[in-house]
TrEMBL record:
It comes from Camelina sativa. The lineage of its organism: Eukaryota, Viridiplantae, Streptophyta, Embryophyta, Tracheophyta. Keywords: Lyase. This is Gamma-glutamylcyclotransferase 2-1-like. Pfam families: ChaC. It comes from the Eukaryota.
């Protein structure tokens, strides 16, 4: 018995747990969206960050990394305990099939765990939902938390997808809009600062044209 986990956000470049194998590939019928609030890493309850989650979309694919944990139940348990603490804003786990470029019709691994979120603002307090590109960019450009700022997360995701040779137009477009926000004069940024609702908590496609892109760190 082995554990497989699919990462499509920060897990791509920073898994943070002990694993035995890493594969680059994709899952089908899901797309990456920045619709989830983060209040304890890259944002705060008063000003949540926007991080990515998955949205079901027939025909879409989402590239990322699958991690395999071998070595018995104890090692798998440690990995899952770590992931559940880290991915605490995701309220669901979904089992998916994982594909690689070598065979696009047959999954190389099945029953891979991926952390997902319920797209419902009533039942899921962390779900922000979609917003216009400019509004999301303003929120990402200004949010910050104990682990750093929100824009760094986005720029690192942009670079990670570029590094695995599957840059994503949606991520590039959002990152470029954030860069435009950062170029604005300080007094204009203050006026454009997004108004976001407080998050209540119980306890308090490969783009070849981007090969010359310069990434923020």
């Amino acid at each position: 018995m082995v554990l497989w986990v699919f990462g499509y956000g920060s897990l791509i470049w920073n898994p943070g747990f002990d694993f035995d194998e890493k594969l680059i590939g994709y899952i089908k019928d899901f797309k990456r969206v920045f619709d989830l609030a983060c209040i304890d890493h890259r944002g705060t309850p008063e000003h949540p960050a926007r991080t990515c989650t998955l949205e079901q979309s027939i025909g879409a694919i989402c590239w990322g990394a699958a991690y395999c944990v071998k070595g018995g139940p104890e090692k798998e348990k440690l990995a899952m305990e770590y992931l559940e603490r880290r991915e605490c804003e995701y309220d669901s786990k979904t089992l998916v099939e994982f594909y690689t470029e070598t065979d696009t019709s047959t999954p190389i691994v099945t029953r891979v765990i991926v952390f997902t979120s319920t797209p419902d603002k009533v039942s899921n307090k962390y779900y922000l939902g979609p917003a216009p590109l400019e509004e999301m960019a303003r929120q990402i450009a200004t949010a910050t938390g104990p682990c750093g700022n929100n824009r760094e997360y986005l720029f690192k995701l942009e670079k990670a997808l570029y590094d695995i040779e599957h840059a994503e137009e949606y991520v590039i477009e959002l990152a470029n809009e954030v860069r435009k926000q950062l170029d604005l004069p300080e007094e204009v940024k203050t006026l454009l600062k997004p108004v976001v609702s407080r998050v209540l908590v119980k306890s308090q496609a490969h783009a070849s044209s981007t090969r010359q892109r310069v990434f923020a760190s």
